[in-house]
Amino acid sequence: MKKIISFVFVILFALVVFGQKEMSAVWTTDLGIKFVHTGTGTEESNYSYVASEKEMAVFSNKDGSIYWTKSFKEIAPNLKKIDELVPFWESNIVFLFDRKAGKDQIACIDLTNGELLWTTNKYQKVTADMIVYIKEDHGFAISLKNELVYIKAHTGEELWTTNKFIGVVGKYIYNPDDHSMVMVNFIPSGIVAFFTMFKNQIVRINVSTGEVIWENTFIGRADRKVISRDFVYDMERDGDKLILRLAGLQVFDYNTGASLWSAAFDFTPDVVKAPKGVVKWGVYGTVADPVVVGDDIYVLDMSNKKSQYVKKYDYHTGKLLWTSPEIKGAKAIPGMTVVDDAVALQIGGLVEVQYRQKVVTQYYTIFYNIIKYSNVKPNGVQAFSATDGSLKWESEKFKKGITNGIAIGGNHIVCSGKSLYSINIETGADNYEVPVSKGGVGNAQMILPYGDNTIVVIGEKGLSTFNASDGSFQKKSVFKSSSPSGQIGDIVLMKTDKDDFAAFDLSTMTYTEYNARKGAITWLEREDAKYVYVYEKDEVTKLSTK
User: Fold this and answer.
1) Comma-separated ranges of CATH 2.40.10.480 domains in the chain
2) Which listed residue, of 229, 254, 301, 416, carries a Cα 20 to 30 Å from 347's Cα?
3) pLDDT tens digits, residue range 121-134?
4) Ranges of CATH 2.40.128.630 domains, the chain
5) What confidence category does residue 12 fall into, taking pLDDT thresholds of 50, 70 and 90?
């Protein structure tokens, strides 16, 4: 599925025009509805919608033309009110919820024409997180308290139920040859109390009958990020092996479900405190992903919060080849780089934080969706021998601060926030040290690799680039005081405290910006970050970031 992540900005300041830097309008459409609900589909699907409490309009992403407008009373007469709309873009179906105490009504409509497909009051206390669309079979898996229900998407016909799978369907692998599916379960934040009999499960199930072919357990907590909804784990099939990258690495037999080997641990990141008014909260990227090099895999063991280790395994057999000396006191190890005979670790530094914050004023309540980065201490850099796990070197210069580290051209580039260091990863000696002030955008908040030999410094007031070979300054693009809010291909996003944001194109080191407007809701297209949709009163405007 091509992903769209919503950045919902409730805007508090008037628009200021910045000439050619302002994002240009592709089209503007007056939909004739003062909407309270919005939904932005993919550029490929070409369907988006707005809705008030009484009616709904669907329009084209390409040109803004209106496909249809209907009242909810006309679409689904048995629904008295609409409390929530949940689109499943790949299915072209929208769920409408009329929530009542013990008498919830659900109606599903065809997004393309507004026709009612089916309604039911059978499923109670179902949230958006508890419904998963299985595109390969055009069905919906709905998680209830004590069972999983599978229905046909366009008719609502219940095909089967099973009480052998409790929780919400997470990432899955579908096999068209026998219509089976391997899936893991999880509980989204906020509905933990709903699933009283929950346990970690990985199962292979016959999608046609609901028969469980095999079942096993897994280590860690499978989940989605609270705002972007990206999975925090990955799963893939490699022949007869099923590989789950969650809290390390877990390998299962695809045919039987038997555990083949595991290098996994339970780890709950509590390294950043939530601010006031937070209703959803998640911290990510606190532990570096496993690194596979040839027949070997390097895994961080963070099972003990007071001490951690690097472990090297044979990727095929799971045989433990060595364990490094103890890494004492690290609260987070976000980065691990393996080059030649060195395994370099970034201790502390930037981790990703996502949350929804509720702000109550005298006149209104505002919900902000925030994606940002926070710096975790203690900081440092250590390197171990890839041959036997012994400590090769440790750098003292980063104990006072570090943003992150990257590998370019065989060198280890690490940023302290004030300087860039190119480090010989074998010895720990500096190839060069360059102040980031040469870039003219303030201290560094993060560094990124670009191309074969370019370091991108995300500063406090924009972006600058340096040559990775010798540290020489290349270009800069000055914005205003802002923080990084993600990268999509060649586009880096920066956002201010007032919710203004800029889209920087790394290929040209130029940017366009959107300046916050009171009462507007902004959605950023996340396939390649080419467009921004602005919803305001009864109008929708599509802006180009290029």
Assistant:
1) 271-402
2) 229
3) 999 889 888 999 99
4) 140-265
5) very low
Q: Which residue from 1, 50, 13 is spatially nearest to 540, judged by alpha carbons? A: 50
SS3 19: helix
* C-alpha span between 183 and 168 (Å, rounded): 10
pLDDT grade for 192, boundaries at 50, 70 and 90: low
Question: Which two three-digit tokens encode residue 113?
Answer: 């024409």
DSSP assignment of 439-501 equals GSS-SEEEEEEETTTEEEEEETTEEEEEETTT--EEEEEE--S-EEEEEETTEEEEE-TTS-E
CA distances from 262 to 194, 246, 314, 419, 475 (A): 30, 10, 11, 39, 46
Fold of 140-265: Lipocalin (2.40.128)
Q: Which two tokens stand for residue 515?
A: 């300046």
The three-state DSSP-derived secondary structure of 128-194 is: HHHEEEECCCCEEEEECCCCEEEEECCCCCEEEEECCCCCEEEEEEEECCCCEEEEEEECCCCCHHH
Q: Which amino acid is at 379?
A: N
**Cα-only R_g, the chain:** 25
Q: Is 4 exposed, middle or buried (0-12, 13-18, 19+ CB in 10 A)?
A: buried
**Residue 4 pLDDT > 60:** no
Q: Is 519 exposed, middle or buried (0-12, 13-18, 19+ CB in 10 A)?
A: exposed
Confidence of residue 198 (pLDDT cuts 50, 70, 90): confident
Nearest to 224 by CA among 324, 300, 130: 130
Q: Are strands 139-143 and 148-152 parallel, antiparallel or unpaired?
A: antiparallel
What phi and psi, each to the nearest 5 degrees, are found at residue 214?
-155, 165
pLDDT on residue 410: 76
Paired tokens of 88: 């499943």
What is the pLDDT at residue 255?
97
Question: Which CATH fold topology does 271-402 show?
Answer: Thrombin, subunit H (2.40.10)
Instruction: Express each pLDDT in 389-432 by its tens digit.
Output: 999 999 988 988 999 999 887 789 999 999 999 999 999 999 99
- Return d(Cα 168, Cα 429) in angstroms, integer: 49
500 Cβ neighbours under 8 A, 6+ residues apart: 13, 480, 482, 513, 514, 515, 516
Nearest residue to 437 (alpha-carbon basis) of 413, 408, 457, 414: 457
